[in-house]
Amino acid sequence: MKIKNISFTVSCCFLLFFVIGYAQHKQHPNVIIVMTDDQGYGDLGINGNPHVQTPVIDKFAAENIRFNNFYVSPVCAPTRSSLMTGRYSLRTGIRDTYNGGATMASNEVTIAEMLKQANYKTGIFGKWHLGDNYPSRPSDQGFDESLIHLSGGMGQVGDITTYFKGDKSYFDPVLWHNNKKEAYEGYCSDIFTEQAIKFIEKNKASPFFCYLAFNAPHTPLQVPEKYYQKYKDIDPASGFENDNKPFSKMTEKDKEDARKVYAMVTNIDDNLGRLLKKLDELNIADHTLIIFMTDNGPQQTRYVSGMRGLKGNVYQGGIRVPFYLKYPSSFQKNKDIETTTAHIDILPTLSQICHVELPKKRKIDGKSLLPLIQGTEVDWANRSLFFYWTRRFPELYYNMSLQKGNYKLVGKTNYNATIADFELFNLENDPYEQKNIVIENKIIANNLKEELDKTYSELIASENLIYPPRVIVGNTHENPIILNRNDAGGQRGIWDQEEIYGKWKVSIEKGYYDIKFKFIKPVKANGRMYLEANTFVKQILNEKEGADIIEMKNVYFPKMNCDLIPFYAVDSKNIFPFWMELKKVD
Q1: Pairing of strands 335-337, 65-67
Q2: Model confidence over 352-378: pLDDT tens digits?
Q3: DSSP 3-state helix, strand, coil percentages of the chain (rounded to 5)?
Q4: SS3 of residue 363 by DSSP
Q5: Which domains, and CATH codes, for the chain?
Q6: Inter-CA distances, 46 with 56, 61, 318, 367, 397, Å
Q7: What pLDDT is stored for residue 425 in this prediction?
Q8: What is the pLDDT of residues 383-419, one digit of tens each?
Q9: What Å distances lie between residue 271 and 193, 218, 277, CA to CA?
């Protein structure tokens, strides 16, 4: 009798633990966001491209929830800040992809920080692009584990560990694991996937948030040879003769770029397959919410499902992207949602699904997608979405748009333009934006312009934009600190030029510093290295011929906010360093 009672008690306990565990899964599902870089709407088989091989993503999309009118910002960093915060990027301090405009203010609350309320384990693998220094790194913004490259892309000027590898920057890279340099073997997308899988294996018993942000198929277009061989003989411009959609003419370079992009996308598809298989093996797939999306339209001319424009453009081709969502234990499968939605909606959606409170004391621009998924709310007709992109700060009415319902107002004009200088499209009747109907619909256009003006005025008055975030120099969280070209401000378009004016906005702690200045090319001897910081100016003669690093030792600075302005003066030239390192020594 006692044995039966013990067995019954054990069975009840087991059932109780199962029920509690299931309830916890329902309350706090695992979350995975997979984002690719510069992959356009047309770079998937499911969206009508006969050339690219994406069986895993196509199946994922076909079997789950498809948001068919999903929008992002026209370029990388703004999309990522809106994804992370649920806010328009200008509110967060993000205004560009470089030129000092790709550092998100540390007072923003990310998805990772929000999910910490429910003790989620959080990890990012791939591209961050919201600040490379304290206090804006992933580890400063809620991520327990981070494996990233710096700046906007591997091989770019800001990623100091891969830039000098040139056309091999995606292979065997030195990456930043929890803010420390580590060497890895293999291809970047494979590495990021492998490390994401290890993170998931380690945290399978806890609710986790995994942000797998591939840097592919962003330039430079580098891919393992076995993937390129799949596409080397195709004609990416063929097969669309009966498509009845606009299609820009492709040059031979465009075609070769498309072959490489498709190869990179197929590699991503294989890696997503590995990830999904691991979730099944760990028996956690049913309780894991997975999002697949891309960050903007394609950079190069190729098939974009007939849409107008590419990356960087507020036409549909630059901002409309694939967005697919899977959550087996809770959501209906094989469902199309046509409502206009956007990147700013992801944070509030996860807040509701994961049962954590929204960030307080700030405006959340997005709306939860859960009512749309559940079919309990379908009328978002009065909702508008604002898009823009120009270098540095927004330029009024230039590459700027407002979309509301079926109508979209586009400005490609002057700050003082009349309504007749704008474009108006009815996206229901004209999804490819071919017919400007502004003249015959001036009332609608003026109403949209009035709302665009109001939104623009509100956003450019954002505190984080007016008082942009500063890198903190001399803090124990990051010492030494390396300031890179991606985050340098100064002249418009500053990149890898030598003779250019540049600076870094910093908040420097009082103390003595050893400083290194690294140059792209060795500099001539008998020039002077200058460093200006408010009223403090330091200079030193360089007598070494062919040096690519110049050092200043034991330099004193008081505590202050300033622009650090370094330059090497020689032969009537002022040469800006590629990066500078500051190490607090007292």
Answers
A1: parallel
A2: 999 999 999 999 999 999 999 998 866
A3: 30, 25, 45
A4: coil
A5: 30-374 (3.40.720.10), 384-464 (3.30.1120), 471-584 (2.60.120.260)
A6: 10, 8, 19, 27, 35
A7: 98
A8: 999 999 998 899 999 999 999 999 999 999 999 999 9
A9: 6, 16, 10
